[in-house]
């Protein structure tokens, strides 16, 4: 027995004997934590907001294999807008970079984590977006987490769309600027907030270029007009636009003719640009220089692995070389949107490849998504709290890699499952009622029907 414990035993023997040992206290703490966590998990399950993860056993693409489902599954829920995730040239570039530069840098950028390929990719991205400079991050989440704190201080103000991405919200929480939240895409409300924040030194209007739940495009022209009128800067998050919005795929700023009026752009390498991982900020040189000095996710996190840099660089090169790839998803998107609308479904958003099939009811969205998978089409139902209550939907994402036949198969599957659940226009309304009465609606899933 250690000397100190022996002395304590002599002074107060009963207390020492009754006091639980360190390991018992440790077990009790773990048991307590387990019970708190189990309770929290149960709340999520009973609240119906549990997010399961399907396991894919093939590479990303329009046709995938999913654990537990037989055969080829048609995939309509990846952000693989241009089909570059498995593009042979992109994959090859990743392999070459892996061989030449190794698996990773085991370092942050400013210690010994900057290779020539990092600088090259930054230059290409700056050129692609027609901005002065670029800085890479491990993700766009990090780019959003690292920007506002560096740019804005307590004398400044940030004006943010209420439906901005979670990473923007978190990034803004980390900065000390005054916060103003304007109603979703509401220019009148933005103007009110600009008036209210007039005493601030610097003001930044912050918006997603495209909002991922609805596929709706921010009114950037109006935002830039107001920002110029009130002397504010404009920031956009282009994760769901880079590579395919606008004639050359530069993004929503190109689509809406305001490339020279939007000051800062954050985007991802993890969606249209090859889909591996990584994010970046492009904008004025002094801002990018300051981010390299002060931005915490950049300073304190490993630099992007060479294969990831190789894949993204090839994707950007393909887009810089030709506008055809940027244009390749538009016609497919309109085919899906038009056929679904003809079939009586409501598709939110405008011409964006995010096509939310609006259903309203959360259970219906989840049941229909399950039934779609039975027909070999993988789509995901979204409900509260990811989208507002009563606005549950199945979000379909079109990729340039989908063929017309893939799209038609998805529309057919929607019509069949919709018929089972009473959504869309049914060509055999009486049949549906009979089957409902005799509890045989599953039969509708297998009714041959073509649009
Ligand atoms: N911003 C938006 C609008 C997004 O949709 C996402 C990803 O879902 C991110 C940022 C984060 O991007 P990344 O996956 O590169 O962290």
UniProtKB/TrEMBL annotation:
GO biological process: L-threonine catabolic process
Keyword field contains Nucleotidyltransferase: no
The keyword ATP-binding appears for this protein: no
One Pfam family this sequence matches: Aminotran_1_2
GO molecular function: glycine C-acetyltransferase activity; pyridoxal phosphate binding
Keywords assigned by UniProt, alphabetized: Acyltransferase, Pyridoxal phosphate, Transferase, Transit peptide
Cofactors, names only: pyridoxal 5'-phosphate
PROSITE patterns recorded: AA_TRANSFER_CLASS_2
Coiled-coil segments: none
Domain of life: Eukaryota
One GO CC term on file: mitochondrion
Similarity remark: Belongs to the class-II pyridoxal-phosphate-dependent aminotransferase family.
Protein name per UniProt: 2-amino-3-ketobutyrate coenzyme A ligase, mitochondrial
Underlying gene: GCAT
């Amino acid at each position: 027995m250690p000397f100190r414990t022996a002395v304590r035993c002599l002074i107060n023997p009963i207390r020492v004997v009754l006091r639980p040992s360190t390991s018992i206290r440790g077990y009790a703490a773990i048991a307590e934590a387990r019970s708190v966590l189990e309770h929290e998990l149960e709340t999520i399950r009973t609240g119906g907001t549990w997010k399961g993860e399907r396991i894919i056993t093939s590479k990303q693409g329009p046709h995938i294999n999913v654990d537990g489902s037989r055969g080829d599954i048609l995939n309509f829920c990846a952000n693989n807008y241009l089909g570059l995730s498995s593009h042979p040239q992109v994959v090859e570039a990743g392999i070459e970079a892996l061989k030449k530069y190794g698996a990773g840098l085991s370092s942050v950028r400013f210690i010994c984590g900057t290779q020539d390929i990092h600088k090259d990719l930054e230059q290409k991205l700056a050129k692609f977006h027609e901005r002065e400079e670029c800085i890479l991050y491990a993700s766009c989440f990090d780019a959003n987490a690292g920007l506002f704190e560096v740019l804005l201080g307590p004398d400044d103000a940030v004006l943010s769309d209420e439906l901005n991405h979670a990473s923007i919200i978190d990034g803004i929480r980390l900065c000390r600027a005054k916060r103003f939240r304007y109603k979703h895409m509401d220019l009148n409300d933005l103007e009110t907030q600009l008036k209210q924040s007039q005493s601030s030194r610097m003001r930044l209007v912050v918006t997603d270029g495209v909002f991922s739940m609805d596929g709706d495009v921010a009114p950037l022209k109006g935002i830039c007009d107001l920002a110029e009128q009130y002397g504010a800067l404009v920031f956009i998050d282009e994760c769901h636009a880079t590579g395919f919005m606008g004639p050359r795929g530069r993004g929503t700023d190109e689509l809406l003719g305001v490339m020279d009026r939007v000051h800062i752009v954050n985007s991802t390498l993890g969606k249209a640009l090859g889909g591996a991982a990584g994010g970046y900020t492009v904008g004025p040189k002094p801002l990018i220089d300051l981010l390299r000095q002060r931005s915490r996710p950049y300073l304190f996190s490993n630099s992007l692995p060479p294969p990831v840099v190789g894949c993204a660089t090839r994707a950007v090169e393909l887009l810089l070389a030709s506008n055809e790839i940027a244009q390749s998803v538009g016609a497919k998107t309109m085919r899906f949107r038009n056929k679904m609308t003809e079939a009586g479904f409501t598709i939110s958003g405008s011409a964006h490849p995010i096509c939310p099939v609006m259903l309203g009811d959360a259970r219906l969205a989840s049941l229909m998504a399950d039934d779609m998978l039975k027909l070999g089409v993988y789509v995901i139902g979204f409900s509260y709290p990811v989208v507002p209550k009563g606005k549950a939907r199945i979000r379909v994402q079109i990729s340039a890699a989908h063929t017309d036949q893939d799209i038609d198969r998805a529309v057919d599957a929607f019509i069949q499952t919709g018929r089972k659940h009473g959504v869309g226009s049914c060509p055999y309304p009486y049949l549906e009622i009979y089957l409902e009465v005799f509890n045989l609606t599953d039969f509708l899933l297998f009714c041959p029907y073509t649009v």
